[in-house]
Each structure stands twice: as C-alpha cells, then as structure tokens.
Design brief:
about 20% helix, about 100 residues, 7 strands, four-stranded antiparallel sheet, globular, about 45% strand, alpha+beta
Length: about 100
C-alpha cells in the first residue's frame, strides 16, 4: 500500500524580488515517513524549495499542501508543520530532509 502524501508541492514558482525565477513550476510529492534528498548544482533552487517546505517563503505561484490541506502561514500551522519536517541540512551539492515524519 502506498503511503499518503505528507507534503505536496503543486506547480510552485518563486521569484526573489525582480530577479530571475528561483523556482519554476515545481511539482513534488513527499509521502509520510520518507527521507528525501534533493541534489543539484549551486543555484538550482534546493534551499529555496526547503524554505517553502518550512513555510518560511510563500510561492509566487502554485501551492503547497500539508496532509492534503493548503499551507497556512500562521503560528499554529507552522508549528505543526515543523514538528513533521525536521533535520534540514545543506552541503555544497545537497540539501537533505532527514525526517519527514508521518
């Protein structure tokens, strides 16, 4: 049986100010209980995506879902979200979510 999605990223785009797009049409499903690693070159958008996953940034376009519900950017929602999405670390070529609890 397939795990239900903990987080869904649906057609998310983001631009820092008036610069080029940092994320463009990103789609991603993270099942509950899975460990996720995003690997890419510098400037590929890994850190920007994780800032969205942790509700630090809001998308310019698209939406994120947590357990099937759209992200809310209030203290209660963000607190519950961050209890489930933990352990983000970065290196030159990878950003890793060590635990996406179910």
């Amino acid at each position: 049986m397939e795990a239900s999605p903990l987080i869904e990223v649906q057609n998310v785009s983001f631009r820092y100010g008036h610069t080029k797009m940092a994320l463009a049409g990103v789609n991603l499903v993270i099942p509950a209980g899975m460990r996720v690693a995003l690997v890419g070159s510098n400037g590929a958008g890994k850190s920007t995506l994780f800032l969205h996953l942790n509700a630090i940034l809001r998308p310019t376009h698209g939406q994120l879902l947590f357990r099937g519900q759209p992200y809310q950017y209030n203290r209660q929602f963000v607190g519950a979200l961050r209890q489930k999405v933990t352990g983000i670390s970065g290196s030159r070529h990878a950003t890793v979510c060590r635990q996406c609890a179910g």
